[in-house]
Structures are given as C-alpha cells and as structure tokens.
# Entry
Amino acid sequence: MMVNKRKRSRRFRGSRTCGWGTKKHRGAGNRGGRGMAGSGKRADQKKPTIIKLYGYKEYFGKHGFKRPQKILEKINTINVGELKFEKKEINLDELGFGKLLGKGMPNTRYKITVRACSDLARDKIVKAGGSVTILEDGHTR
# Structure
C-alpha cells in the first residue's frame, strides 16, 4: 500500500531552518547576513577593520539623545465656510469646536461664542454683520 508523503512546505512549517541547516538556502547568497551583520559589534570578527575605517567612537556606542516632546492636545477646528446652522447664535464650545478658522465665507449673520478664533475668521464674521465672543476658561471675555 502506498502512503502519500506530506510536502516539505507543510512538514517544516514553523521550524525556522526548513531542514537546510543554518546558513544555506536563506536567500542572502554567500554573504554573512544583511546590512552590518557580522561587523563585529557583538563579537570580534571585523572589529579591527571597522575601527580602521570609521574610528571607535564614531561607530560603537550610543550617540546623543532624543529630546522629550510635548504632547499637544488636539483642538477641533471649524471653518467659517462650514457654518451652516439654522440658529443665528452659536456656541461652538458646546458643540465641541475649540477654534474658528477663516476658510470660506459666512452665509448669514452669526453671533458666535468660541474659545479661539483666527483674525481672518473674525474679520469675515464682522463684515457679514455678525460678532465673535471669545471664551477664556469657560467665561466670556
């Protein structure tokens, strides 16, 4: 009775070397790895060559540091051209918008209350006959 043999790809699935040992058949040709592998950073293979080419301090060790960055909170913005509300008095802070920006044109007179507003947005609202009130920590300024 003949027994079906499983394919190599199924038999060696997850075995890391797939039956070829460690160096052969890994797709890197006859080189010693990829990139700077085997350059002697962890052992002594090519350390003298590296030191001669780059110098010790330039190649080995850590260099510099990364400054901790401030985590800025995201401010929801809305443009003047996007104001398409039925009401004429709008509190953008209650609607979840932190800043009013000046892209577009207002279609009606609005009386707007907001935490922050660009100069262009304020000018456009005032030219259309409306007004802008700036809130400071929840209080009208």
About this structure: The CA atoms of residues 82 and 104 lie 7 Å apart.
